[in-house]
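subagent[fold] <- orchestrator: predict structure for attached chain, return tokens only, no commentary.
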Amino acid sequence: MKRQFSLAHLTVLGCAPPEMTYIAAMAGYDYVSIRPIYMGLPGEPNYDLVVNKEMMKQTKRALADTGVKLHDIELARIYEDVDPKRYLPAMEVAAELGGKAVLSSIWTPDRNFYIEKFGELCDLAKQFDLTVDLEYVPIASVNTLARAADVLRSVNRENAGIMIDTHHFQRARDHVEDLKALPREWFHFAHLCDAPGEIPTEKDEMTRILREARSYVGEGGIDIASIINSMPEMVYSIELPNLENVKVLGYAEHARRCIQSAKVYLDANPRR
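subagent[fold] -> orchestrator:
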């Protein structure tokens, strides 16, 4: 089966969905993973396609022109006092554009609350035939494989999934044996990137690498092959923000090198 790749939002942060789609097509990606849910982070561009009707129209045209498809939207965060219904308009956009999944993460320590709200999010997404895939993040509240698995077992929704990011997996000091033990139906897509093998002890440095200094696949210290080969074959969304590389190469060449390095690495580390 031909491997399929998606270009993730953070890899080309400064590109709106239409430009991102054309870059993805030129570089050889099958999908894009966009962020139409505005999070209000410092310096974050607003790509809310519900509000920006012209950008929505341009995105539809770019998808039609290139044949690239939408894979997933982000980021439906579960945080203190969130009402998951606020993500309904973005889910409608995802469905209209042919998307498959909603990426989520959990940023509140209140387990009873986040289990309830993640379940609600899954129920809302189901009407659009979207999965909700939980990404555990080293700086978030749900920050390990075990905690993410606990959420999926607790909500027990058919459209709930777990999304493994190779950077986060290594930073959480998780083990591939635990990954192999999880239900295969939980896996819909994964995030590929590399990073220095040494795990930062300071949260600021962890955050800096996570947001702006990840490495091309095979150029860091993460045993990506062991992680990827412990899961089913699926779409690989390349989330590889690197501000220095973008400054030197530009977004289009950075995106091309992201997929090229991933293909070379995966070819050199086949499944056994």
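orchestrator: received. Logging for downstream: Residues 84 and 174 are 29 Å apart (CA to CA). The longest strand covers residues 69-78.
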